[in-house]
Design brief:
alpha+beta, 3 strands
Length: about 110
């Protein structure tokens, strides 16, 4: 298994923001045979940030992707953020509790 110290030696500019804490909570058991740089790339591709909640993440994602802007104005208030968040975390993303909130990761990395 790749150790935290091995990754730290290879990370070009060190960890940013909450990456170090999130890295500690990331399920890295699947990457035992990867090269360190490849392992780091997988982490950074999977890591979607630290959030207060899954709902907070979903609301931000909707805003960033412009989903609400594409809807007619008269139905925007009916968008169900909680259902959207629930669906996101049923397959596309997973989260893990961490001292700083929840760390969110894309699945399949």
């Amino acid at each position: 298994m790749i150790t935290f110290e091995e990754v730290m030696k290879e990370v070009p500019n060190g960890f940013e923001d909450n990456e170090a804490e999130a890295f500690a909570f990331w399920d890295n058991d699947n990457f035992k045979n990867d090269e360190v740089c490849e392992f780091w790339d997988k982490f950074t591709e999977a890591f979607a940030g630290v959030w207060h909640s899954e709902l907070d993440f979903a609301e931000n994602l909707v805003e960033d992707l412009g989903y609400i802007d594409e809807m007619p104005e008269h139905i925007r208030g009916y968008f169900d953020y909680e259902a959207f968040a629930r669906d996101l975390f049923m397959g596309d993303f997973f989260s893990t509790n961490a001292p700083m909130g929840i760390a969110v990761f894309r699945c399949n990395y």
